[in-house]
């Protein structure tokens, strides 16, 4: 939460002043911004703190108010208002502003929360929602890539809180052009250089590179500028575009070299990617909404100030909270696409201040670019130094810079997540301190010996030291993806050789949570591990210590969950044993002849009777009571009594006197759960679903005994949440879609059973034409139409409107969807004509 609060403070600073065109004296200035603690407004202006569980049960959003301090003018006065609410922000569970932060397990129990729940999600309108991490290409980095035709170009997406822009370097017929989202057309690159104050052609070429092939590739661009008759720059203001010139020159140089031997960048490589977490995504969202909010304020000020002469314009009266609130709530919605898993111990960095890094770099001999003529950039021993995509300067001895930098980081003088790496092909040193990079910790290896010894591990076990101490004493360090390329990492201690720089802390941390639950994964065929990673998420089990207090739409629980007999280290780390999702079954495998191995099981009835795989399925039923405009409202009535016996009728048997079913009652199909009466329509009952009968099992006697070896042992079985009863579906006739008159789709809508394209192909292969006709037309959407044999158009009740006669009209059956297609084509002035011939000729 803390980086997020810093982010929104920066966003507020970047958009702090709102002015009006109508009155130059009027302004609105934001002084500070805060996010409060989660609360709920019970009645007008009466709020109280709220717990996440209450929000789940009452279908509320777990959110906190965003307040600002402002200074503005009203008439000729200057007014300062503090703690003015501008909207609400959904709060992530267990973040620094959440009620649950820093609580003990006992306090968790009081709040009806599970102490093992990791948090990290939001509660929006009573539903738990997670914001998934999003992958983006790095901002402020030059990415060189080839398009489909093979032409090479470079692009940079620049992003600060003030403005965002995109710059492309394109090549057309051997000439270089700059494309920018603020410019309407592509501009020749040399004209851009001259506009930025580099007027001599020699200087431009020196910046880009003095090698023979580089100059040859850049020649046509210089000629083009010559033809355009542009030579010098008309100076308007004193701007120093030196750094921008060098950056542009580097882009051109990269493109020229990529046309030669150098490779283009790989946009799927994780060093060129940034991962955006919930905090960054929400701050991007807040930035948009805050700008929209301010432009709304400006619009109102522009409209109201000229009109009002009597009363003064007070901006506070026009501040609406709903704009920011709704924007925040609606954005947290469902996700789709490929979901990747992070490995254990992965850390995703957050943004850091780069001031100290700039100072350190200049002390280590990085020379400022503004002091150079530009030709030094193409010397073979001079390396460019980048910090977060911006050019810091150049250095001759890049190895010394990198080594000193790493020593300073290990000693704790700069943040442990700052990375420094070299790119030898582009002759660059990249220093990164931005957020969204993937890092993992590794043990440092010096002189073929790992820095962490058994003594350190004993101290860790006794609680003398923690992980932070390992970082500060240069025993362990974090490496990001780019820095891993410069390192040589050993997987095990015995594989360390003279080139090794780091040692993996523990090999199993290469796996994520899902794969880490599988014992002995290296003994399985690889797709089996992949399947288990997808299916482990669907296993029934325990969902939390508070599962009996939750009212979820659907909750599947195992009656007797067990912890696995064989466990991995990951299972201990994520405390899977405390919330297990499966049972240990003893399986006997008998191969009778060697050719009869199936993947089916025979269960013995005794274990089912004892509760093997028994599960509980909870479903909730909701009933909303509305108020209507004509002063009437829905209410819950007591059970209806039989006139003769004065007992509740069968449908209302399970209701209490308050009209709501009493707990623990067995509900049969068509019985009422809540007896709600509406003012116009009488009683719309909320009905229970049918309760299935238990299936009857029969023991089948086996006649002859088999003699074979039997191999058996325990296996941890997971029962998935897919139930046959929930999937079972059949239909003869039923509802149809209005537009096409074909049967509806899906079990919930009592839909038809689709004979799809592939099934159709099988029937065509068999030549079963009448079966095809039946499935695709007669059982689906057969329709009687009248067709005129002369003009081939559809008629109506035996009459052709086009020929104005009925002598050639025949009646035939076609699918309704086919008739619809013909009519829709006719509405677009395309005439489909049907050619008829007698079927007996």
Automatic annotation (TrEMBL):
Top-rank EC class of the record's enzyme: transferase
Family annotation (SUPFAM superfamilies): beta and beta-prime subunits of DNA dependent RNA-polymerase
InterPro entries: DNA-dir_RNA_pol_su2, DNA-dir_RNAP_su2_dom, DNA-dir_RNAP_su2_hyb_sf, RNA_pol_bsu_protrusion, RNA_pol_Rpb2_2, RNA_pol_Rpb2_2_sf, RNA_pol_Rpb2_4, RNA_pol_Rpb2_5
One Pfam family of this chain: RNA_pol_Rpb2_2
CDD domains: RNA_pol_B_RPB2
Catalytic activity annotation: RNA(n) + a ribonucleoside 5'-triphosphate = RNA(n+1) + diphosphate
GO molecular function: DNA binding; DNA-directed RNA polymerase activity; ribonucleoside binding; zinc ion binding
Sorted UniProt keywords: DNA-directed RNA polymerase, Metal-binding, Nucleotidyltransferase, Transcription, Transferase, Zinc, Zinc-finger
A single cellular component GO annotation: DNA-directed RNA polymerase complex
Enzyme Commission identifier(s): 2.7.7.6
GO BP terms in the entry: DNA-templated transcription
Annotated RNA polymerase Rpb2 domain residues: 139-238, 385-446, 467-499, 751-835
Domain of life: Eukaryota
Domain RNA polymerase beta subunit protrusion: 8-325
Start and end residues of each DNA-directed RNA polymerase subunit 2 hybrid-binding domain: 514-699, 704-749
Annotated family: Belongs to the RNA polymerase beta chain family.
Name of this chain's protein: DNA-directed RNA polymerase
Source organism (scientific name): Tupaia chinensis (Chinese tree shrew)
Lineage per the UniProt record: Eukaryota, Metazoa, Chordata, Craniata, Vertebrata
């Amino acid at each position: 939460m803390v980086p997020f609060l810093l982010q929104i403070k920066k966003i507020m600073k970047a958009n702090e002043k709102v002015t009006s065109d109508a009155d130059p004296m009027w302004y609105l200035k934001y002084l500070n911004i805060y996010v409060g603690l989660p609360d709920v407004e019970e009645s007008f202006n009466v709020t109280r703190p709220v717990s996440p569980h209450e929000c789940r049960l009452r279908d509320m959003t777990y959110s906190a108010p965003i307040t600002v301090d402002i200074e503005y003018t009203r008439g000729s006065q200057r007014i300062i208002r503090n703690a003015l609410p501008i909207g609400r922000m959904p709060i992530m569970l267990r973040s620094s502003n959440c009620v649950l932060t820093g609580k003990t397990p006992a306090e968790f129990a009081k709040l009806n929360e599970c102490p093992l729940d990791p948090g990290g999600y939001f509660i929006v309108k009573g539903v738990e929602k997670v914001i998934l991490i999003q992958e983006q290409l790095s901002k402020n980095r030059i990415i060189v890539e080839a398009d489909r035709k093979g032409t090479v170009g470079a692009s940079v997406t620049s992003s600060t809180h003030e403005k965002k822009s995109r710059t492309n370097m394109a090549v057309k017929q051997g000439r270089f052009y700059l494309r920018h989202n603020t410019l309407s057309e592509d501009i020749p690159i040399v004209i851009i250089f001259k506009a930025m104050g580099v007027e001599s052609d020699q200087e431009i070429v020196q910046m880009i590179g003095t090698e023979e092939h580089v100059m040859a590739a850049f020649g046509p661009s210089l000629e083009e500028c010559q033809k355009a008759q542009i030579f010098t720059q008309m100076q308007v203001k004193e701007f120093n575009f030196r750094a921008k010139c060098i950056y542009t020159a580097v882009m051109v140089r990269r493109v020229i070299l990529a046309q030669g031997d150098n490779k283009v960048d790989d946009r799927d490589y994780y060093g060129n990617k940034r991962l955006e977490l919930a905090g960054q995504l929400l701050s991007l969202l807040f930035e948009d909404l805050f700008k929209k909010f301010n432009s709304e304020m400006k619009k109102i000020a522009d409209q109201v100030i000229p009109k009002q002469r009597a009363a003064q314009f007070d901006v506070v009266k026009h501040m609406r909270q709903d704009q920011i609130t709704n924007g925040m709530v609606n954005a947290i919605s469902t996700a789709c696409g490929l979901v990747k898993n992070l490995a254990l111990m992965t850390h995703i960095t957050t943004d850091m201040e780069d001031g100290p890094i700039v100072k350190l770099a200049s002390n280590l001999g990085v020379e400022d670019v503004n002091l150079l003529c530009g030709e030094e950039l193409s010397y073979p021993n001079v390396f460019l130094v980048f910090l977060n995509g911006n050019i810091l300067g150049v250095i001759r001895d890049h190895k010394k810079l990198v080594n000193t930098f790493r020593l300073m980081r290990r000693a704790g003088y700069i943040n442990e997540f700052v990375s420094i790496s070299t790119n030898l092909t582009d002759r660059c040193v990249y220093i990164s301190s931005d957020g969204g990079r993937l890092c993992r910790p590794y043990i440092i290896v010096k002189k073929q010996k790992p820095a962490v010894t058994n003594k350190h591990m004993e101290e860790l076990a006794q609680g003398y030291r923690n992980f932070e101490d390992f970082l500060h004493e240069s025993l362990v360090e974090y490496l990001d993806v780019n820095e891993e390329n410069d390192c040589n990492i050993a997987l095990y201690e015995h594989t360390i050789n003279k080139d090794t720089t780091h040692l993996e802390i523990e090999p199993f941390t290469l796996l994520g949570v899902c794969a880490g639950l599988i014992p002995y994964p290296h003994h399985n065929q690889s797709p089996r591990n992949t399947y288990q990673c997808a299916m482990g998420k669907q296993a029934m089990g325990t969902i939390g210590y508070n599962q009996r207090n939750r009212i979820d739409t659907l909750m599947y629980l195992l009656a007797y969950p067990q912890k696995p007999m064989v466990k991995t280290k990951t299972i201990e780390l994520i405390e899977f044993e405390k919330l297990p999702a499966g049972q240990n079954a003893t399986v006997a495998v008998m191969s009778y002849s060697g050719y009869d191995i199936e993947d089916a099981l025979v269960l013995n009835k005794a274990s089912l009777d004892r509760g093997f795989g028994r599960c509980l399925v909870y479903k909730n039923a909701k009933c909303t009571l509305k108020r209507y405009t004509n002063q009437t409202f829905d209410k819950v009535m007591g059970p209806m009594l039989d006139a003769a016996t004065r007992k509740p009728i069968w449908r209302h048997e399970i209701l209490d006197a308050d009209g709501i079913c009493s707990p623990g009652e067995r509900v049969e199909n068509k019985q009422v759960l809540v007896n709600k009466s509406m003012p116009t329509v009488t009683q719309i009952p909320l009905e229970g679903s049918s309760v299935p009968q238990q299936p009857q099992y029969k023991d089948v006697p086996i006649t002859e005994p088999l003699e074979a070896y039997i191999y058996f042992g325990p296996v941890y079985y997971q029962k998935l949440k897919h139930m046959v009863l929930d999937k079972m579906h059949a239909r003869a006739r039923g509802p149809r879609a209005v537009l096409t008159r074909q049967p509806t789709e899906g079990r919930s809508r009592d839909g038809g059973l689709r004979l799809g394209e592939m099934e159709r192909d099988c029937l065509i292969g068999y030549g079963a034409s009448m079966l095809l006709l039946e499935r695709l037309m007669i059982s689906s959407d057969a329709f009687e139409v009248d067709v005129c044999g002369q003009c081939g158009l559809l008629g109506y009740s035996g009459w052709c409107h086009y020929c104005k006669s009925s002598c050639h009209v025949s009646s035939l059956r076609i699918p309704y969807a086919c008739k619809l297609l013909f009519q829709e084509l006719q509405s677009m002035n395309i005439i489909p004509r049907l050619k008829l011939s007698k079927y007996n000729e």
